[in-house]
UniProtKB/TrEMBL annotation:
Name this protein carries in UniProt: Uncharacterized protein
Source species: Nocardioides hankookensis
Transmembrane helix is among the record's keywords: yes
Record keywords: Membrane, Transmembrane, Transmembrane helix
TM region(s), chain numbering: 41-62
Superkingdom of the source species: Bacteria
Keyword Membrane: yes
């Protein structure tokens, strides 16, 4: 039976012919530097990818916290006072502006004053300058609060030029409002103890 001493001798004899290459010190240094460079590149790539992910995630998070803002198109009944588009879309009239309509839920083109105290209901589109030969520039004015006195209108172009005065006798009601030229007209409205303003577009017939 082979004892432990003989086993050790046999193992030494078996490994005497095995040559283990020795890496020169310079090669070890180069290899170590290469490994460090690879680690730095990998770290930079990971850090860069993380920064991109964070940059992409922040706007998404902010937009998720901030609800979309709904903007009414210019000229819609919800865009009070701003109606310089053609055509003015039809909308459901406010409760206080429905007197005289047979339909309990009338839908018609109209523009609300900036303060919400008056509406201009358009019975003809488009409003034209000069007046069209096939329809009139009929506007029905309805006040939120009944007042006495004429409705006085001062219309100007966006730069404040070409001021024009018009009067609807007896206060807000049916009228024909002709203006001298095309453009987006700003109308200052005064009646009784009330005042408001809105915009109306006039186009060529």
């Amino acid at each position: 039976m082979i004892d432990e001493h003989e086993v050790a001798q046999l193992l030494r004899a078996a490994t005497d012919d095995v040559t283990v290459p020795v890496t020169p010190e310079r090669d070890l240094v180069v290899a170590g530097s290469s490994r460090r460079r690879r680690r730095r590149v990998a770290t930079s790539i990971v850090a860069g990818a993380a920064a991109v992910a964070v940059a992409a995630a922040v706007p998404m998070a902010l937009s998720a916290d901030r609800p979309e803002r709904s903007v009414a198109p210019a000229g819609s009944p919800d865009a009070a006072g701003a109606s310089c588009v053609q055509p003015v879309p039809s909308g459901l009239l406010p409760d206080w502006a429905r007197a005289g309509f047979s339909d309990p839920h009338p839908r018609i083109p109209y523009v609300t004053g900036e303060r919400g105290d008056i509406v201009a209901i358009l019975f003809a589109q488009p409003l034209t300058a000069p007046a069209s030969t096939d329809h009139t520039n009929k506007v029905l004015w309805v006040s939120r609060v009944a007042t006495e006195g004429d409705l006085r209108i001062t219309a100007t172009l966006p730069d404040g030029s070409a001021p024009v005065a018009r009067v609807v006798e007896g206060g807000p009601g049916p009228s024909i409002i002709d203006l001298p030229r095309t453009g987006c007209w700003h109308l200052e409205l005064d009646w009784g103890d009330r005042s408001d303003s809105l915009d109306l577009a006039y186009v060529a017939p």
